[in-house]
Design brief:
The protein is α/β, with parallel strands linked by helices and about 170 residues long. The protein has six helices and nine strands. The chain has one domain: Rossmann fold (3-Layer(aba) Sandwich). Helix content is about 30%, strand content about 35%. A seven-stranded mixed beta sheet has the order 5-6-4-3-7-8-9, with helices on both faces. Strands 1-2 form a two-stranded antiparallel ribbon. Helix 1 crosses helix 3 and helix 3 packs across helix 4. The protein is globular, with a radius of gyration of 16 Å. Bound molecules: adenosine monophosphate.
């Protein structure tokens, strides 16, 4: 098993969810017990010796990888969700999309001062969602130790948006 096998399993779905988008479908990776484990193990290895307090996982595919990592490393999991989904008191951040804006939320008591967190999602595109997540973490007093993505669409320059942070991705699409 290797990064090439993970890359080969990711399926391009053209014009989903709208025309002009090539959607990177990670469900074949999840379906393969070997590849799913490989992805989780590659990321986990980076933090074995400097375990974060929490994985902050971005809705919705970030939850899949974040929960496996939290279990494997023995950390907590904090979900960041689209506005209106979290039941308790929240704080929110809005960010620009190609058309309009999006708002994400986290529970107001989800993190405390000095908590070390890794933010995780399946894919880094423009970095807007990830940067807004970092703002939420920092507003609660948490420290963003790094970002983890399975896939990075390098041509959308998300890494530039996150330039003050440590950013890792397993598969880079140029
Ligand atoms: P961005 O904020 O532009 O970095 O977009 C990242 C978010 O949108 C992540 O939660 C991704 O899951 C999702 N996303 C953006 N582009 C794609 C794509 N081509 N394929 C799959 N997911 C995508």
């Amino acid at each position: 098993m290797s990064v090439e096998s993970i890359s080969a399993a990711i399926r391009d779905v053209v014009d989903f969810p709208k025309k002009g988008i090539i959607f990177k479908d990670i469900t074949p990776v999840l379906k393969s017990e070997k590849l799913f484990r490989e992805v989780v193990d590659i990321i986990a290895k980076r933090y074995e010796k400097r375990k974060p307090d929490y994985f902050v996982a971005i809705e919705s595919r970030g939850f899949l990888f974040g929960s496996a990592l939290a279990y494997k490393l023995g950390c907590g999991l904090v979900p960041v969700r689209k506005k209106g989904k979290l039941p308790y008191k929240t704080i929110e951040e809005s960010y620009a999309l190609e058309y309009g804006t999006a708002t994400i939320e986290v529970h107001a008591d989800a993190l405390g001062k000095g908590d070390n967190v890794i933010i995780i999602d399946d894919l880094l595109a423009t970095g807007g969602t990830a940067a807004a997540t970092a703002k939420l973490v920092e507003r609660l007093g948490g420290k963003v130790v790094g970002f983890e993505f399975v896939i990075e669409l390098a041509f959308l320059s998300g890494r530039k948006t996150l330039s003050k942070y440590d950013v890792n991705s397993i598969i880079v699409v140029n």
